[in-house]
Amino acid sequence: MTGTERVAGEIVAIGDGRISLEVLPAVGARLHRLRFDGRDLLRTPSDLARHLDDPWFWGSYPMAPWCNRVEPGRSTLAGRELDLPVNFRDGTSIHGQVSQAPWQHVEDGAFRIRAGGDGWPWPYEVEQRFAVEDDVLHLDLGLTNLGDDAMPAGIGFHPWWVKPLEVAFAAERVHRSNLATDPEPVPVDGPWDRRALAPMPENLDATWVDIGEPPIRLAWPEANLAATITFDAPTRFVTAASPAEIGAVAVEPQTHAPAAIRRFRHGEPGGLRLLDPGETLALAVRIAFGPGDG
What we know:
The chain has three helices and 23 strands. It is mainly β and about 290 residues long. It has a single domain (about 5-290), classed as Beta-galactosidase, Chain A, domain 5. The strands form five sheets. Strands 5, 10, 11, 12, 13, 15, 16, 17, 18, 19, 20, 21 and 23 form a 13-stranded antiparallel β-sheet that branches. Strands 1-2-3-4 form a four-stranded antiparallel β-sheet, with no helix packed on it. About 45% of the residues are buried.
């Protein structure tokens, strides 16, 4: 089976009003397309197979049981042995295990996967739900520990929002680099002070903490369109990346900081959350669209 045949096995359409979605259950139940009033807002490939052969830079995908970059290889975590593969060009193990795996379409707007193994010793289940209510998109993600002992866990969403775009984060502190993070974040300043709407400087790749309200604002001035993103989770972080070679910016609600396995292991702030057997870690995102300032 070719990549295109696998991806195109089912395209689930959600929404028939101003907001419309296309979801690919066969590839991480990811959003292939998000439109508002017919305008594409995500970086959407013309060839569906790009979601498999270049999986990190298209659409929007769920991340579990961790987000961002962690160290690969053999290590011990919460009394269990890890052996995580390198899956990204910078030599890290990035964005968890489920963003490219086939999910089940279980009911309208709901998708589910059972995973674990492949170097992650705990079994778990992830459920993702999409719902449209007037001009608001609801994204809900839940990770449940199916094992017999406590499991460290983290979840998040990874949308690539198309440019030209302005962004703002209500955040007082930041981890300036997702590649080499100190234990503690620092106060925002210079290009990392994103409290006012403006285009993202190129080649930032950082995580913001101490999230206020509203956590994220987006604006497409040429389209006179804006979006306010709020999210609920036990802990809240916003990761953003603006690679110069891509005409989009990743703005990612997450439940932990980068290097979350190291943080958990050493008791640093922003690490993975420990889930008891049967416990669920939930992330609820709301994206409200409306007119811009123009």
